Amino acid sequence: MMPDPLDPRRSAWRLNLLGLGLFVFALAALSGPGRIDIEDGQDRFEAGLNLLEHGEPSIRDPRAVWHRFPGRGGHDFTYYRFPGEFVAAASIVVADLWSTDEAWRHFVFSFNGAVTAALLAVLFATWFRKQGSQHPLLWALAGIVCTPCWYYSATTFDDLLGTLFVVLAIVAADRSKQNPWWLLVSSLAIAMSLNCKQPLAAVLLPALAFADRPGSYRILRAGVLCCGFVAGYAAYVGYETWKFPPAEKAKHAEIMAEWGLTIFSGQPLQAVLDYIAGPSSGTLWYAPAILLGVVGAMTLRPRLVISVALAIVAIAGFFALLTFYKGGVCWGPRYLTPLFGLLWLFAPLGACQLGPPTTALLLTLGFAVQVLGLALVPERLYVEQKVPSGFYTVDPWLYLEPAIGHIVNRPREIVDAATAPPSPEFTPGPTPTYTMPVFDPPFYDGPKGIAGVRRYTLLNDFRPWWVTLPQADPPPIAYGKPLAFFLCAAVAGLFLLRWKGE
């Protein structure tokens, strides 16, 4: 019997999902900096802008000096892949519906993560409901606000985009057992995961396990998913070769040597230790609630447990080989964010095993840690401690020093920011909404230590845009209407979340 599309319960559920998406979007938007907060985001913004204006994702702004390499046509490009660049272009199109002012474009671009978080929350909710979880909407909301997904929904890093595709690959693979058309969705999600970050292609392993169903079409089903991997890899290689012809790419090693940038010269043992419980990237500290997902995943059928474990080992193991395994100037283990999204699919199962008191404790700790992360910019600690931005290339073991562990120092930093005097300058960047520079010569020649922190509002004050942007002289945007819009969206989302139908 076909479900009745006019069933009030189905209509109420759709309104609940809309409410969840609206509330998460508004919450993430209100938690963000309202500006481009990292060089990675600035590069993607410039690529998206030139994709619209010149038909290619080049980097032409002379102010954008980081991670740009010579490519086709005598122009510079970045190694960031097409999903992030295309999303940047889309955000500029949306911004231009109101204004083409650069600050406004930066402001709208900064909410890409909020949109992604809303979609991820809805995806979580549909999965939890199908799995028969109690309170699927609350579990979906917790998957954002009790994990690093909240922090990365409020930055211009693109890790949450990869998280969305990793989770979609699993959810669609599982649903394909009832409707084989979902195999195509999972296959596309695998391809997009690879093009967000190459190691995320390992999601193919659990996708194969979740899509598997006894019958004569098992090989065909697996083949469809493997085609997604092959197509994704072909798109990745093709796009990179198009941007960087061989003659141009040959110059890149020399440029990276000038920057002192090495990729695979890190310390895997140190990275694994830090990933587990280190002050810089320890999952136990930065994502304590994810223990629910770990315990829940262990209750799955053996082949599912093995496939998830292999994907985690492959993805985390690859990142552990990097010199910059943490993910640069960020909050916690940035590169592991997609794994946190994957494991959260099994959090309700873990809650059943651990019981209400432990579950409540882990969720509370997870929420509190994300609030700490969102309070201040991560650059603040490195400037205060006079640490070079690329210190990990000199001594990767410095990541294990408590003095530069954000989770250790953040309570003290919050107290200091709350009592600090106003700063004489707003930002060391070229404009209030432009990313701050790398805090090393030749990009930055100002003071470090507490004097450097006190000099700039963006380092000295709390992070959300509705706190910092009004202090710029003049403010880069008229912030009153956007603030009202996001507050109204949050209220509307809460109203729809409570909708019970007839």
Keywords:
502 residues; mainly alpha; two-stranded antiparallel ribbon; 27 helices; globular; disordered N terminus
Average pLDDT works out at 93
What gyration radius follows from the Cα positions, in whole Å?
Answer: 22 Å
Number of strands: 2
Helix content bin: 55-70%
**Main sheet: which strands, in order across?**
1-2
Spell out the helices and strands N to C.
HHEEHHHHHHHHHHHHHHHHHHHHHHHHH
Secondary structure class reads mainly alpha
Shape: globular
Count of alpha and pi helical runs: 27
How much of the sequence lies in strands comes to: under 5%
Low-confidence stretches: 1-7
Please characterize this protein's 3D structure.
The protein has 27 helices and 2 strands. The protein starts with 7 loop residues before the first helix and ends in a 5-residue tail after the last helix. Helix content is 61%, strand content 1%. It has helices at residues 8-31, 39-54, 82-95, 102-109, 112-130, 136-145, 149-153, 159-175, 182-196, 204-211, 218-243, 246-249, 252-259, 268-277, 283-286, 291-297, 302-320, 337-344, 347-354, 356-375, 379-384, 391-394, 406-419, 449-455, 457-460, 465-468, 480-497, and strands at residues 69-70, 76-77. The chain is globular, with a radius of gyration of 22 Å. Strand 1 and strand 2 (76-77) form a beta hairpin. It has 502 residues and is mainly α. Strands 1-2 form a two-stranded antiparallel sheet. The model is unreliable at 1-7 (pLDDT under 50).
